[in-house]
Amino acid sequence: MKNSRLEQIKEYIEKHGKATYDELQELLPDVSNMTIRRDLSMLEEENVVIRVRNGAYSVAEIGKKTEEQFVQRFSYNVSEKKEIAEKTTKLIDFGGCIFIDSGSTTLYFARMLPDDKYCVISNSLNVATELLRKHSPEVVLLGGDVSRNNLVTIGSSTLRFLDEINIETAIMSTTGFSLEGGFSCGAQQESAIKSAVIAKAKKVIMLLDSSKVNKNMPYIFTDLDHIDYLVVDKNFPKKIKEELESRNIKVI
Amino acid sequence: MKNSRLEQIKEYIEKHGKATYDELQELLPDVSNMTIRRDLSMLEEENVVIRVRNGAYSVAEIGKKTEEQFVQRFSYNVSEKKEIAEKTTKLIDFGGCIFIDSGSTTLYFARMLPDDKYCVISNSLNVATELLRKHSPEVVLLGGDVSRNNLVTIGSSTLRFLDEINIETAIMSTTGFSLEGGFSCGAQQESAIKSAVIAKAKKVIMLLDSSKVNKNMPYIFTDLDHIDYLVVDKNFPKKIKEELESRNIKVI
DNA sequence: TACATTATGTTAAAAATGAACAAACCGATA
DNA sequence: TATCGGTTTGTTCATTTTTAACATAATGTA
After folding, report:
1. CA dist A244 to A86, A96, A226, A252, B219, Å?
2. From the list A62, A128, A164, which residue is nearest B62 (CB)?
3. Minimal Cα–Cα distance from A247 to chain B, Å?
4. pLDDT tens digit string along B58-97?
5. How many beta-carbon pairs under 8 angstroms link A with B?
6. Is B37's pLDDT higher than 90?
7. Which of B47, B139, B144 sits opposite A146 (nearest CB)?
8. What would the DSSP string read from start to end of A8-60?
9. pTM score of the predicted model
10. Fewer Cβ close by (within 10 Å): the C or N end of chain B?
11. Which residues of A touch B63 (CB under 8 A)?
């Protein structure tokens, strides 16, 4: 019965991410406070929880925090990016084959992508692992040399791989954008892949948070003519928006 | 000066994984206990640390624990596997191109692989991300459909990709092994890739912990004739070892 | 300079914790 | 069944930790 109690506690904490002594007391009204304390001590020894004042956290929960922290450290404009990601999910047709580019905004998009029948292609390890946590989408990962910067596969073999597949919709990101300079990024090999993807895709959706506007990076990978939809946040400059719409690009 | 203090504390905790109030007091002799407490509260708000009795942990540190727990949950025979991985590192030549199979033993191997000039190829996302944490090896990831089970790429495109590359040494794992049944695994597509890798590799090193011995899985991917080295743990049955050595396989 | 805001120190009261001991429980054995 | 050893649980209490509240100092700002 000790074991079943430990299991119960463990289950509760895993489920809720944490628990206070009061909560656990309610869960197990017939045991004393001290017993619960001792139980948590044991679970702490097993690295299942970590005890804090008034209760304990599940280590898994804290694992999530780590991740969150990690993502946020390298990412600014988080709420804008999430907003863009959210809007983008509404543009996706069912059943299609989607390419998802690497980048923080696209990663948020991957996270929000409903659990439906898609086939997703990506060259980003982060996007792939994110999607694999869900149940449904089939994930195809492009092969190639893995770049340490941003955990994407690049190189000639990646391009060749790309040759063999169809892309319905491409969800792209960019490092820089301006009306004159088009869409640009910082590495040649990345740029090559982005270009190739855009060339193959029937529908191209570009995610563009306002921090990217009027920045130019060395390698241009596409211009406005190849973009079907541009999803932006609420801080996006109106002037540019109007200019874009006059060129028949749907700005969302 | 508040910020620099926060930085100092953060740094200390990130480095040591945790800190007690006493330690921090020693680090910062000119501030009061209360200030340190407040600082830790702030860092807790930022998800950098989590406070416990007497001090705080770095969330990153706990992240590691989670991982450890995660690995151990799905993995038995941990010490044997680490032993095997350790031995295997000594068999590796400098400068070669190594294929690393998926599997928990091979993952430990990847973790222990010295930070030298190699080029590593793998179809396992776990192996790849593990290696990318280090500085040096170039990592090539095979493309293809990603299998949710074990996070490896599989399928015909993976095989085609494999055609294009050279493999000097292959570090392989197996799910089952017996003298009669050879090396076997549970999925056809996995088996196809393992076979292809072994066919290409100049030197094949098989990691085999004793829990696999005399287990047979449906798909045989190779037999003893293709294996150059077999790295086993100390519980490996002596009889089988002798039999193998009589067949000219180096058992380590 | 004067004021507002923030940061820090001090203290005391509240609380959480762990240690020690006692009671209950359990299984095995005679 | 009685009894013994071990384990688990409960209770109490002293200790330590924590927090809240207030006072003081520092800092920024008009």
Report:
1. 21, 27, 13, 11, 57
2. A62
3. 37
4. 988 887 777 766 666 666 777 788 888 888 888 887 778 8
5. 114
6. yes
7. B139
8. HHHHHHHHHSEEEHHHHHHH-TTS-HHHHHHHHHHHHHTTSEEEETTEEEEHH
9. 0.73
10. N
11. 62-63, 66-67
